[in-house]
Amino acid sequence: MCECQRLKDRVAIVTGAAQGLGEALSYRLAKEGCNVTVADIKIEKLQEVAKRIEEEYGRKALAVKCDVTSEEDVKNMVEKTVEAFGKLDIMVANAGILIAHDITEFPLEDWKKVIDVNLTGYFLCAREAAKVMVKQKSGVIIQINSKSGKKGSFRNSAYSASKFGGIGFTQSIALDLAPYNVRVVAVCPGDLLDSPLWKESLYDQYAKRLGISKEEVRERYLKQVPLGRACTYDDVANVVVFLASDEASYITGDAVNVSGGVEMR
């Protein structure tokens, strides 16, 4: 990998940055030269992430507690970023949750929670970022979507619905913002089988639902991947950095697959 900084002196916000993919994306953006606002509801862990960015990557970092479903929190996150760094170049809307049920057993409360975080949260982050970027006449909004935003997901209807909606929203606001030189794109990762979401939740959920062991769940998902391995944080980060860079200046409204061939549309 080239050691040059492709995003030198740009300012990024990453939501859901306290762990997992969001944390990894925050470090990668810092490595590429960004000053980064890391946002999440877990403020103590966020402060550790911000400290590492400053100490290990030599970039400025701001930790902001933010519930992406709260309009006030999201406005505060963007305002503090602009106050601290003077601008906003990259919004990475990564915060998300997954709650899976069979449709006949899906509690309304769980359905609303998934839609609220994954879709409404993205809307709020994009809207507030766009207000800044329109004035600048520059910027990139990147949603971390999913292969489940391209194809229905078995017993996972709320998550898939939220991600399909995210792609439609991405395409729509890409049209709205194109006249202002603001690009909007989605990234659709495959299964991050070594992530906290899988290790702390999904393996247990799927093993119970399918009546098999967690190890068998992992094998079942790996067998679906033409390239034969799980998606990694680096796989996703490579695409995010490219899409945020000037090299992708003619790309907007797209939803880019990073799925090892599982999804090809």
UniProtKB/TrEMBL annotation:
GO molecular function, one term: sorbitol-6-phosphate 2-dehydrogenase activity
EC number: 1.1.1.140
Keyword Oxidoreductase: yes
InterPro entries: NAD(P)-bd_dom_sf (IPR036291), Sc_DH/Rdtase_CS (IPR020904), SDR_fam (IPR002347)
Coiled coil regions in record: none
Keyword entries, A-Z: Oxidoreductase
Family recorded in the similarity comment: Belongs to the short-chain dehydrogenases/reductases (SDR) family.
Name of the protein in its database record: Sorbitol-6-phosphate dehydrogenase
Species name: Dictyoglomus thermophilum
